[in-house]
């Protein structure tokens, strides 16, 4: 199987209908970067920056971070890397930041909420990213955005830091993309001003699913209870696709489900054009994407939704069984 996937490395994930899905990888450590070559990923769709903070027992310094981010960009040699700003809190606790005793940390003071309430660390991280980019293109995405104003504030921190770096005489990114992670259902219903302001939206399916179904992603008793191919979840996703399309904003999916071939073809059929996953999933996902006609699958899913099917999984599996190898 490894060999078969290796022979696909240079080929696009082009489905029978002609549609091409962009496949990217998720990363978080320098050690992940060599997989970019091996997997054939187009870029890093999610770089989880908190890992650099979690592997230390003290707060990293700005220059240390800038060096790490620069090495990540060097290793990506021109491919796009979407740096997700610090997502701490919830399951990721930094020993050197006073641990918060919260009754429900997944819904607590985490991610961008910390960044906006105590912007010192966020600003330091943004400065490090700007210095690392040294005039190269820079892609930043903010985690756990629940409301439009949170994105607007985070974005203005980044723009202010760029302005400041420029006034200090540092080179600033020639191209800038600023995205939001959609991980809470509320963001799908944000005012149009949010969709106008954002450069791209990335679905954080792991958190999104836990909040959509109110099922703790860490709790073995409930975490597999609800299916990502449920009619409810797919209807929700198709509404997000429609809003992004109407606003001309690219939409990607970077949760674990993107790396599961059946989920991946379903999301692609709904109109999600970029999927980001662990590197080992790229081969299997690409193989299945190349085998199917996404337009036909999309029509199949729409009929199932119109018929009120609670889960689309049986229909997708039956349809797949009729498709040529
Ligand atoms: C997600 O929630 O789907 C996601 C990609 O972020 P993380 O798994 O790091 O919370
Ligand atoms: Mg998340």
From TrEMBL:
It is found in: Cytoplasm. This is phosphoenolpyruvate--protein phosphotransferase. Belongs to the PEP-utilizing enzyme family. The gene is ptsP.
């Amino acid at each position: 199987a490894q060999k078969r996937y290796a022979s696909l490395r240079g080929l696009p994930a082009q489905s029978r209908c002609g549609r091409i899905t962009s496949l990217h990888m998720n990363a978080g450590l320098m050690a992940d970067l060599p997989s970019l070559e091996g997997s054939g990923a187009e870029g890093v769709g999610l770089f989880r920056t908190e890992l650099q903070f979690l592997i230390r027992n003290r707060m990293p310094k700005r220059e240390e971070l800038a060096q790490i981010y620069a090495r990540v960009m060097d290793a990506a040699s021109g491919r796009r890397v979407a740096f997700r700003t610090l997502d701490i809190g919830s399951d990721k606790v930094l020993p050197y930041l006073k641990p918060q005793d919260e009754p429900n940390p997944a819904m607590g003071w985490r991610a961008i909420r910390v960044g906006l309430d105590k912007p010192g660390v966020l600003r330091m991280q943004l400065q490090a990213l700007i210095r690392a980019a040294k005039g190269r293109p820079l892609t930043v995405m903010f985690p756990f955005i629940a409301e439009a104003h949170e994105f607007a504030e985070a974005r203005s921190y980044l723009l202010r830091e760029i302005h400041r770096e420029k006034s200090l005489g540092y080179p600033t990114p020639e191209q800038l993309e600023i995205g939001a992670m959609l991980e809470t259902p509320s963001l799908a219903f944000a005012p149009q001003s949010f969709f106008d302001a954002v450069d791209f939206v990335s679905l954080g399916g792991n958190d999104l699913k836990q909040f959509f179904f109110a099922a703790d992603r860490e709790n073995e008793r409930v975490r597999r209870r609800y299916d990502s191919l449920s009619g409810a979840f797919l209807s929700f996703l198709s509404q997000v696709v429609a809003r992004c399309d109407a606003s001309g904003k690219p939409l990607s999916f970077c949760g674990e489900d993107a790396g599961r071939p059946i989920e991946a073809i379903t999301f692609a059929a709904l109109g999600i054009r970029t999927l980001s996953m662990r590197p080992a999933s790229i081969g299997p996902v690409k193989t299945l994407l190349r085998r199917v006609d996404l337009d036909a699958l999309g029509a199949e899913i729409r009929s199932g939704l119109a018929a009120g099917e609670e889960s689309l999984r049986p229909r997708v599996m039956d349809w797949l069984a009729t498709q040529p190898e």
